[in-house]
Design goal:
alpha+beta; six-stranded antiparallel β-sheet; 18 strands; globular
Length: 380
């Protein structure tokens, strides 16, 4: 007679040093952020040729710009002459070229070297070979995603697959038309915590009844501790008296045109590893991009996206923005409260995950696999 093994109630988290060790963070920079697709910038932020944005991806600084033909291009933010950083600003606009402020080596918006002092006297210099180093770029959901790997992994099998894995069908996210939405609000948070604490927090709702009173009023099932991401294809249903995804449950805006009847009055959440959260509600989309800057510091840029006519009309979006802004502040405070304990001897072997957090263990196994280590496993 065989017996079915009993899954332990408590399984181990990562040990504390995964959240505090600079060497672990360096490995993550190399094997995670610099090796996978990284969501860098909202495409519409670069609304004309010459507009640029610089972002930190692992140990590298990357320029994303729009060329003269209107296409997005990405390059390492490094002059090929003596290594000076080309663009010091986080964002800006250049008319026709990118010029190094050190020795005036100048590149066109496709990265080709087009001018430099005395360059005409150096006819043997290959202007393409000494152009800027290209970075792979794809657009999805209205964002530019970059990958620093020499041979990037399949975008469909990694990034797009996250939507399939969560919603069971990529069409389900396409119904929101995120690439056609307009930016209604952007808030940047500087969080004094390791990026993994933020991911883990987003993936579970065991804490929701404790720290998210406004959210659990709108989504009552969250008070039971099961996050939307716990079930494949499941969307958390609005409360019976709730009219919209707003801080007071008041009415929001009209349902986005392609959102299905099954998706109406529901909230869906997707984690796109390593650093993106997508939140879907009937009348808008909220997207978080994380920029891990140190083992104990993560900048999070959060966009609230609405139908273009809502933004163009000057409609007041503050009640829907306020709901998730409060959720963000509450979550990030919890992460900052947790970060100092990661270096405590009490957390040397890590903590534990209760049954409705066990899916976080899959994230831990994925990360440890990327780093080439071994996970602690169940707690006995």
């Amino acid at each position: 007679m065989t017996t079915t093994p009993i899954t332990p109630s408590l399984i181990a988290t990562l040990p504390g040093h995964y959240y505090t060790d600079p060497d672990v963070f360096r490995q993550e920079q190399e094997r995670v952020f610099e090796s996978l697709w990284f969501c860098a910038v909202r495409s519409s932020d670069l609304d004309r040729p010459g507009a640029f944005r610089t972002v930190q991806v692992g140990r590298e600084n990357v320029i994303i710009t729009r060329n003269r033909q209107g296409g997005l291009r990405a390059f390492l933010n490094v002059c090929r002459h003596r290594g000076a950083r080309l663009c010091l600003e986080e964002s800006g606009e250049t008319r026709r070229t990118l010029q190094c402020p050190y020795h005036a080596w100048t590149y066109d918006l496709d990265g080709k070297l087009i001018a430099a002092p005395n360059l005409i006297k150096m006819p043997d210099v290959d202007r393409v070979a000494y152009g800027l180093i290209n970075v792979s770029l794809r657009e999805w959901l209205g964002y530019a995603w970059v990958c620093l790997a020499d041979e990037p992994p399949s975008f469909e099998d990694t990034v797009v697959h996250a939507a399939v894995e969560r919603l069971s069908d990529v069409a389900a996210i396409e119904h929101y038309g995120t690439e056609n939405l307009a930016l209604g609000k952007r808030i940047t948070y500087d969080v004094k915590a390791n990026w993994k604490l933020i991911v883990e927090n987003f993936m579970e709702c065991y804490h929701c009844a404790t720290i998210h009173p406004e959210l659990t009023e709108v989504l009552p099932e969250f008070a039971d501790g099961y996050a939307a991401q716990y079930y494949v294809g499941h969307g958390a249903e609005f409360g019976a008296d709730v009219k919209g995804f707003t801080v007071d449950g008041s009415e929001g805006f009209g349902k986005l045109p392609e959102v299905s009847a099954d998706q109406d009055r529901r909230y869906y959440a997707i984690t796109v590893k390593p650093t993106v959260f997508v939140n879907l509600v009937p009348d808008h989309v909220i997207l978080h991009r994380m920029f891990p800057l140190a083992e104990d510091r993560t900048v999070v840029e959060c966009d609230w996206l609405y139908a273009p006519e809502v933004v163009a009309s000057g409609a007041d979006v503050s009640r829907s923005v306020e709901l998730f802004h409060r959720v963000n502040v509450q979550d990030f405070e919890a992460c900052e409260r947790t970060q100092p304990a990661m270096s405590s001897r009490a957390y040397r072997k890590g903590g534990v995950l209760v049954p409705n957090e066990h899916h976080i263990g899959i994230f831990h196994e994925w990360l440890v696999g990327r780093l080439g280590g071994a996970h602690a496993g169940p707690v006995h």
